[in-house]
Amino acid sequence: MSYPKRTAALASVAALAGSAVLMAAPAARAEVVNVNYQCKTPIGDKSAVSPIDIKGVKSGSGYKLTMSWQKGVSSSPVDLGKGAMNPSATIKLGGADSGTLSVTGPANQATVPANTPIKISDLTGTYTPKKSGKVTFTAGVLTIKALGTTTTCTPTNSPGASLTLDVTAASGSSGGTQSDSNTSDNGSALPQTGPEDSAIALGTLGGTVLLAGAAGALWLTRRNQAARARR
């Protein structure tokens, strides 16, 4: 094989290697899912449908999750003053892992007028994988505590997963069981979705492979030129 052809072949191999590394980036899928809540309140049963969005971002050996409601749920017969209402919820794990994750958030920042849908603030929590593989995150039970009362809202329409992540267990093994073992986190909302830092790291590795291949091709070309000059 001539040196020009060898140079082109090496560059092609390096480019393909970089593409293969990028294609291996972890998958993440998120979608807004309508959840039909049936709520048990101190003044009777109520129902409401709200689109639910769950987002996740890699953080250390785990993931920080943010659960958001696009519409209000339940209501109160009296005004709820600032700080009178405290929400919390669970997220059901599925796929490679199982159990539930607790998410919490701040009390209402403004007065909630009587007989109007209660807007739930973003709730956050930290998920630490106990098993490796694709894990799904689905809206679970919503709990609203206000003025000494508790309202429990349960999904009744078997909603689909709002988020799917391809995760790796912190121990590096596929053993263990997830069941109410994650610690809740009152951090701020996290707009990113999925383990993007992993994808960036893999992309950087792919670029390194490509540069290494190009450098090798350039070295062969210069050596060929030097050899010809000595003849």
UniProtKB/TrEMBL annotation:
Signal peptide annotation: 1-30
This protein's UniProt keywords: Membrane, Signal, Transmembrane, Transmembrane helix
TM regions (residue ranges): 199-221
Keyword Repeat: no
Comp. bias regions, Low complexity: 166-185
Region Disordered, residue ranges: 155-199
Name listed for the protein in its UniProt record: Peptidase
Source species: Streptomyces canus
